[in-house]
Amino acid sequence: MDGVNERLAQLAAQLDQVPEDSAQYQALAEEYNHLKDLKRSPEYQEKKRESKTLRNKLFHIKRMVSDYDKLRG
Predict the structure, then answer these.
(1) H helices within the chain, ranges in order?
(2) Measured at the alpha carbon of residue 17, what is the angle toward residues 15 and 21, in degrees to the nearest 5?
(3) Among 57, 16, 38, 52, CA closest to 24
(4) How far is CA 57 from CA 41, 67, 73, in A?
(5) Which listed residue, 24, 28, 59, 64, has the most CB atoms within 10 A of its CB?
(6) pLDDT over 80 at 1, yes or no
(7) Non-local CB neighbours of 15 within 8 Å, separated by 6+ positions
(8) What are the residue boundaries of the OCEL domain, all occurrences included (predicted)?
(9) CB atoms within 10 A of CB 49
(10) b vs e for 35-48, b when ≥16 Cβ sit within 10 Å of the residue's Cβ?
């Protein structure tokens, strides 16, 4: 998911450097719009929520391990 955001940032920077009437601009804009649409899709949103939930669980487990280690020693 971070890859999508990174790619969008790259495309935005490239779009700023390319003339709007060029074929390259059209291709970059098409990919940019495709990725923006992808981010709005229900599947992407669900994966994003699931990743956030798993990340929170991981942080919780790490905190529990750290607390345990402090008690032991």
Answers:
(1) 2-17, 23-40, 42-72
(2) 70
(3) 16
(4) 25, 15, 24
(5) 28
(6) no
(7) 25, 28, 29, 32
(8) 1-73
(9) 10
(10) beeeeeeeeeeeee
**Residue tagged 């450097």 (tokens):** 17
* Cα 14-33-41 angle, rounded to 5 deg: 135
Query: What is the rounded distance in angstroms from the CA atom of residue 41 to the CA atom of residue 24?
Result: 26
Digit-coded pLDDT (tens) for 10-67? 999 999 999 999 999 999 999 999 999 999 999 999 999 999 999 999 999 999 999 9
Side-chain-side CA neighbours of residue 15 (13 Å)? 14
Structure tokens at 4: 């999508």
